[in-house]
Amino acid sequence: MPDLLERSSSAIPPSLPRVPSIEVDERAARGSLLEQIARLESELASLFCSTYPRTGFDWRVPSRGGPRLLSLVELERVRDGLGARLDENRRALGDRTFVEEQNRCRIEQMMLEPDKHKWVRVGNEDIGEPGCKHWHVRPRWGVLGMLMSWWRVRISSGCPLAGGRGALP
């Protein structure tokens, strides 16, 4: 039996030689991530400019706790967060522009056939434009127009005067 123990202990290989530690140069990865972040921020800014009068979008780029050098993991989180916010804003803008285009088509239909759109009202905010203007299908001459089915589109003149009538500075 002692020979068996000696053989098994001699079968254990000697310790493996040490592999020299490899230092990774993060400059290339950091540069690539910073370029991607800059591109995403630029796209977010151009999307903001193209949607300007509209509200309800998330445009913030939050601070990461003051001036410091971010690690690769933190840079990846920033990039992923910007990408997700950009996709979300693009999707919301696409949905909103679809609705606005349908409202523009509704205005055209109202103008062509007002009797088929009785009492419909579409405002500037519904078509993505600033201001108080609105299109409203109403009967001409009140009750008589309703009875005779004389409908028309009335276009408002916009916002009322800020100071009211006759207000002098």
What can you see in these coordinates?
The chain is mostly helical and 169 residues long. A 3-stranded antiparallel beta sheet has the order 1-2-3. The model has no long low-confidence stretch (mean pLDDT 81). 48% of the residues lie in helices and 8% in strands. It has helices spanning 2-10, 27-50, 72-112, 142-148, and strands at 121-123, 134-139, 151-155. It is built from 4 helices and 3 strands, in the order H-H-H-E-E-H-E. Helix 2 (27-50) packs parallel to helix 3 (72-112). The chain starts with a helix and ends in a 14-residue tail after the last strand.
Give keywords.
rod-shaped, 169 residues, mainly alpha, three-stranded antiparallel beta sheet, 4 helices
Task: Give the SSE map.
Elements: H1 2-10, H2 27-50, H3 72-112, E1 121-123, E2 134-139, H4 142-148, E3 151-155
Antiparallel strand pairs: 1-2, 2-3
Span of the ends, CA to CA: 115 Å
Strand residues, percent = 5-15%
Quick one: biggest sheet?
3 strands, antiparallel
> What proportion of the residues is helical, as a percent range?
40-55%
Strand order of the largest sheet: 1-2-3
Based on secondary structure, the structural category is mainly alpha
Task: Give the ordered list of helices and strands.
Answer: HHHEEHE
Tally of helical segments: 4
> What do the pLDDT scores average to?
81
The whole-angstrom Rg is 34 Å
**Bulk shape:** rod-shaped
**Beta strands, count:** 3
Low-confidence stretches: none
